[in-house]
Design goal:
mainly alpha, ABC transporter involved in vitamin B12 uptake, BtuC, 14 helices
């Protein structure tokens, strides 16, 4: 009889929870399981999901990135300000993504070469990026560029009657596909898993630790910045005060998606499922109409604790001699 590899158990648990939440909502509310609700779920959580893909790589390497929410807000207000000044939208997005990638690389360098804790370095990044956003413009800026008003709506795809898949959802799904490929089918992805499993062993095997760590945080900065770009598509504005706590949602989605906080075990598709679980919980509460929206955080917190305990039990079992 085949024995299930312990590293797949959290991913399987995530899939079971996702199906359970979805079928529960479908049983409670007749219109819950319609294609329209599903595509809205993907579109509404797209910017969080894109940022969570980058967070997945950092956690897989055994690190953490707390600058995600500030990066998304910074990129949003930067793009809005550049467009207000007459900049081409593609140039504005390119500048924002390049700055985000560079910021991630700088944090990676500080973590690697100065042996600083990722928690403290990215916490500093959180404050710096949030402050820079307010320096650019302390107030929200609406985006009324023709590209946002006329072109983006045309990029949506009709997937079912009354169900239009927005461009933001396509950006999210595209990020998941790219992230899955990089993590599962490239040498860099194998290096990330090796460092997360055991950095000393990875060093002895010849893994380029410094280059891989810096690239990992640069990649996280890229996805966070791209999440900021997607947020401008969704909100049609930039606001330096927005997305406070988004990094915690991203981390929760990654952990609920089956990635171990200690690193070395996890899959990007699991992060997709984690985002969908968070979105489904919010949707059920919205359909209910009588529950306070803070119940979303309560349920997510409970799920997070369950998955952390599950990961701990799996780790202890794996450490036991056969």
């Amino acid at each position: 009889m085949m024995r299930l590899n312990p590293k797949y158990i959290p991913l399987l648990a995530t899939a079971v929870v996702l199906l359970a939440v979805f079928f529960t909502g479908s049983l409670l509310y007749p219109n819950f399981g319609t294609p329209r609700v599903i595509v809205n779920l993907l579109g509404d959580n797209a910017f969080v999901g894109v940022a969570a893909v980058g967070e997945s790589f950092v956690i897989l390497s055994g690190g953490i990135d707390l600058s995600v929410g500030s990066m998304v807000a910074f990129v949003g207000i930067l793009i809005a300000r550049l467009l207000q000044a007459g900049c081409d939208p593609f140039l504005a997005m390119g500048i924002a993504v390049c700055i985000g990638t560079a910021a991630g690389a700088v944090m990676g360098c500080l973590i690697q070469f100065f042996e600083m804790p990722p928690f403290l370095v990215t916490l500093a990044g959180l404050f710096c990026l949030r402050g820079l956003g307010f320096v650019i413009r302390p107030e929200s800026i609406g985006i009324d560029h023709p590209f946002y008003a006329e072109v983006l709506p045309q990029l949506s795809i009709l997937v079912a009657p009354k169900a239009v898949l927005p461009f933001t959802a396509m950006c999210f799904l595209g990020s998941v596909v790219i992230g899955s490929f990089v993590a599962g089918f490239t040498r860099f992805g194998r290096y990330v898993y090796a460092i997360g499993s055991n950095e000393n062993s990875a060093r002895l095997m010849g893994v380029p630790i410094a280059r891989t760590k810096i690239t990992t945080y640069a990649l996280a900065g890229f996805f966070s910045a791209f999440g900021g770009v997607v947020s401008t598509f969704y909100m049609q504005s930039g606001n330096p005060a927005s997305f406070v706590g988004l990094e915690l949602d991203a981390i929760a989605a990654v952990v609920i998606g089956g990635t171990q906080l200690t690193g070395g075990v996890g899959y990007v598709p699991g992060t997709l499922m984690g985002i969908l679980i968070l979105g489904l919980i919010q949707t059920i509460i919205t359909f209910n109409g009588t529950l306070n929206s803070w119940w979303t955080k309560i349920v997510i917190g409970g799920l997070l604790l369950v998955f952390i305990v599950l990961q701990k039990l799996i780790s202890r079992r794996a450490a036991q001699p056969v």
